[in-house]
Design goal:
The complex is a heterodimer. Chain A is α/β, with parallel strands linked by helices. Chain A contains 21 helices and twelve strands. In chain A, helix 2 (44-60) links the parallel strand 1 (33-39) and strand 2. Chain B is mostly helical. Chain B has a single domain, classed as MetI-like (MetI-like fold, Orthogonal Bundle), CATH 1.10.3720. Chain B has helices at 9-36, 54-61, 63-94, 101-108, 110-113, 116-126, 133-142, 152-180, 184-192, 197-226, 229-235, 247-257, 261-289, and strands spanning 39-41, 48-50. A two-stranded antiparallel sheet of chain B has the order 1-2. In chain B, strand 1 (39-41) and strand 2 (48-50) form a beta hairpin. The two termini of chain B are 29 Å apart. Classes of the chains: A alpha/beta, B mainly alpha. Chains A and B meet through helix 1, helix 3, helix 20 and helix 21 of A and helix 1, helix 12 and helix 13 of B.
């Protein structure tokens, strides 16, 4: 079964490649050198990358061209890149989400960004600390920061007003969520108080927000993690609180990733914890004024910082890259690091403006004054300490582990297992996967 | 009229393309899957460590896999039972001489023409926990607010109905053809003897339909095991809490999302064996009761 599908995929890919080659007119000696980029940007982000960035790059460097290809979800993009690496013809650049970081680091298939970009060509000191820190492993920058995000709280100002709450004040703590939520539901302003996307990422966020480790060995940053720690009392406490919200009809769980956005946008649910990459999309689609705030904290717990998510760009070695290809890649990275480009990407999507100069540019244009929701995430990641716990966890087999944790959260919320049982079960499975990963990647 | 090939070589030459296609796309991958199932494979390099039957042992001992197996059985039983019963009922109605019955028959075929992804999207929208028309209706009628993103049993129910609905058109076509082949004389004779409509159906029509029913039983079982991937992927992604985590979906997750080729290959071997055994049992048990009239 699996092999058949793989083969069919490879054949289709070959057909596509042959088709592309045939499309290049013969004798076009001056044809620009093409570099391929496989990405997972759907929705508003698709146009931003395929039209604006690709066209802008060609204009800035006529000798080069970028060929972006949408390869499905983040998970599928990684798998397709793996298949392409094994087939010997990977794209020059692949966009990989933070969950794939460890896998890519151990792949032997990548060229670290620091080897592609000549020193001084891109001022990496200009990058915002927490963003750079996530992709820096062992003191070296492995991949190019591109679309970094974090999670924030969105809320429906109309509903807050109707419920007799101050529409300029989002909840700051879990207790606030509970008190305000009860008012919202009791007043009938919305059917439920809160929902969230990316459930296991939210659990990761909660750990970072309170400076707790998610895995051993310095969150997997000193050496490869061998044990997850999300089933310790803190993780159980977080999930128990969510479960209480669900029991009290405050939480209307709406599925993984971006599925719950719909419940928020329809006015059914008053608050949404979701990636900041959705700011632009949500503001455009909402028929009510949208407010935003920091992720609520658990009262009486230590203070940390929200963690970086999103994706970065990895250079794949293939069978070796020519100096021209490497130069094209370096120029492309240089192009997306330009303050104007970084700022535009932020405005189009809601991902972080990753450099200080881009932020300064946005401030000069008074962007944040006009779009305060675009600034919330940015303010949030600048508050709090820089520790291994807030730099984000690195795990092998992380894609599968996220899936297991999602399942555990769903089992607990639906009452099939208690929060402790669900997380213990998930931790056992996750630890098995970590063992397997460490065994295979010696 | 006896056609003969002039030489011995020609028939083989004519068969060669089909055999080549089957070999390349079926046998080679199947053997490769069998080989991989004995290895633990590093995703990027493809380098494998021979682990013997460890992958199979892990699967048999894994709670997730066993849970997925029981979900699959439940799912398959639901889809086959609901699909066959529902389509037989509709087919009987559509075989009546009604004005405009041709239109009904054409329309009934439509669901089969939809791709699983489109069918999944339709059902997901219908039952969306916040905005779906079915949810709104259920809320108005029962006062409950069913959320299939959280309630596993409900999610399994909705996916079973969606999967059965998707096969409805296919089943109805075969049942309709079968119903039209039922000899009128037999039915008339039974009526003359004083049998009512229900009795005529169970004693005359249903036994004569048995070859069709058996064929559809096999096809629907295969469908429920192998072909519902798209529907599940669009609707529930195996959730909530693994409630719709059927074997093909688990296999997809391990192979194409997690790149654990070894364990995924072992799963495909196990799935193949299970369905093989299931088919054998079906042919042995049910096949005997079929009347080929």
């Amino acid at each position: 079964m699996t092999r058949i599908l793989t083969r069919v995929g490879v054949v289709l890919l070959l057909v596509a490649v042959v088709g592309l080659l045939a499309a290049i007119p013969p004798g076009a000696a001056q044809a620009p050198l093409k570099i391929t980029l496989w990405h997972a940007m759907g929705g508003a982000r698709y146009d931003a990358i395929t039209k604006d960035i690709a066209a802008g790059f060609s204009k800035a460097y006529p000798a080069y061209a970028l060929e972006p290809l949408y390869t499905g979800s983040y998970g599928e993009t990684v798998t397709k890149a793996i298949a392409a690496v094994r087939a010997g013809s990977p794209p020059h650049i692949v966009q990989v989400f933070e969950v794939g970081t460890q896998t890519l680091l151990d792949s032997g298939a990548i060229i670290p960004v620091t080897e592609v970009v000549k020193p001084g060509d891109i001022d990496f000191d200009d990058y915002i600390g927490p963003i750079l820190n996530y992709y820096q492993v062992g003191g070296r920058l492995a991949s190019m920061p591109f679309n970094s995000s974090t999670a924030i709280l969105y809320y429906n100002k109309d509903v807050f007003q109707k419920a007799g709450l101050d529409p300029s004040k989002p909840p700051a703590t879990y207790k606030d969520v509970e008190q305000m939520g009860r008012k919202i539901v009791a007043s009938g302003a919305a059917r439920a108080a809160i929902t969230f996307g990316w459930p296991s990422w939210m659990l990761e966020q909660a750990h970072a927000m309170h400076d707790r480790p998610y895995a051993d060995r310095g969150n997997g940053r000193q050496a490869r993690a061998t044990r997850v720690l999300f089933n310790e009392p803190f993780g159980v406490e977080v999930l128990s609180r969510w479960k209480r919200w669900a029991d009290g009809k405050l939480l209307a769980y709406g599925g993984r990733e971006y599925a719950p956005n719909k419940a928020f946008l329809s006015g059914e649910v008053a608050m949404l914890m979701q990636s900041t990459s959705q700011v632009t999309t949500i503001e455009k689609a909402a028929k009510f004024p949208v407010g935003s705030g920091f992720l609520p904290r658990i009262e009486g717990q230590s203070a940390g910082r929200s963690v970086i998510g999103g994706a970065s760009l990895w250079v794949l070695r293939g069978k070796g890259r020519s100096p021209q290809e490497l130069d094209a890649i370096a120029k492309f990275f240089k192009f997306i690091a330009l303050p104007a480009e970084t700022a535009k990407w932020h405005m189009d999507t809601g991902y972080f403006p990753a450099t200080k100069t881009a932020v300064a540019l946005l401030r000069k244009q008074e962007w944040f004054v006009k779009h305060p929701n675009h600034e919330t995430a940015f303010k949030q990641i600048q508050e709090g300490p820089d520790t291994p716990n807030t730099r984000g966890v690195l795990l092998g087999n992380f894609v599968q582990i996220r899936n297991i944790t999602d399942t555990a959260i769903e089992k607990a919320l639906s009452g099939r297992l208690s929060p402790k049982e669900a997380l213990d079960e998930a931790a056992r499975e996750a630890n098995k996967l970590l063992d397997e990963y460490n065994r295979i990647n010696k | 009229m006896e056609g003969r090939f002039p030489g011995r070589a020609l028939p083989y030459a004519l068969l060669l393309p089909s055999i080549a296609v089957i070999a390349v796309f079926l046998f080679v991958p199947a053997i490769e899957a069998l080989r991989l199932s004995l290895f633990e494979v590093a995703p990027f390099t493809g380098r494998g460590t021979f682990v013997g039957l460890a992958n199979f042992r892990e699967l048999v001992g894994s709670g997730i896999y066993r849970h997925s197996l029981s979900v699959t059985l439940l799912f398959a039983v639901g889809v086959v039972a609901l699909g066959l019963a529902g389509s037989l009922a509709v087919a009987v109605l559509a075989s009546l001489r009604l004005p405009g019955v041709g239109v009904y028959r054409t329309v009934l075929l439509w669901p089969y023409a939809l791709s699983p992804a489109v069918a999944g999207t339709i059902w997901a929208l219908l039952f969306d926990p916040s905005t779906g028309p079915m949810t709104v209706l259920l809320r108005a009628v029962t006062g409950l607010s069913p959320n299939w993103m959280m309630d596993g049993t409900y999610a399994l129910g909705v996916t079973v109905v969606a999967a059965a609905w998707k096969m409805l058109g296919f089943n109805i076509v075969f049942f309709l053809a079968g119903l039209q082949a039922v000899p009128q004389e037999l039915q008339e004779a039974a009526r003359v003897d004083g049998a009512g409509g229900v009795r005529v159906f169970w004693r005359i029509t249903f036994p004569i339909l048995s070859p069709v029913t058996f064929f559809l039983f096999v096809m629907n079982s295969l469908y429920a095991f192998f072909e519902v991937f798209g529907l599940i992927d669009v609707m529930t992604q195996g959730g909530p809490g693994g409630a719709t985590d059927i074997l093909v979906y688990r296999l997809y997750q391990d192979a194409f999302i997690s790149a654990r080729w070894g364990i995924a290959s072992a799963q495909s071997i196990l799935l193949f064996a299970m369905v093989g055994v299931l088919m054998l049992i079906q042919f042995r048990l049910a096949g005997r009761r079929v009347v080929y009239a």
